[in-house]
Amino acid sequence: MAAAMAGGKSKKKKWSKGKSRDLNQNKVQFEEELYTRFMAEVPKMKLITPSALVERLKVNASLARAAIKELEAADKIKRVSYHHSQWIYTRATKVSLTGFARVSGSSLAPLPCSSPPLRAHRAGLHVPVRCVLALQEE
Question: How far is CA 117 from the centre of its chain?
């Protein structure tokens, strides 16, 4: 009985003030050193997103988006997917487009297998598989 009465006299529970989170002080402008590092590192990354730049370079998200736009305009990176909430880019690779021709803007259409440019460049360059099969049948 004495133990039950003593239970009411213990200290009251103290409430925590919530979890505190460390706020990162990310940069809002490029300094010369950071800009040269950005131009050297980012075009070589396989996956380029604004959040990846924020993590790696410790810059603000709006600065990361502006920097991505600048690299895309200079054709140093290539867009994979674009959504208002997430941009996905990758490094621009130099691909041989021997079997394709520009139709309008940036869209490509395959050349016919019997076209002279494709026949002239088929040795050692990228040729679509359908054309390789067609050329073997001849």
Answer: 34
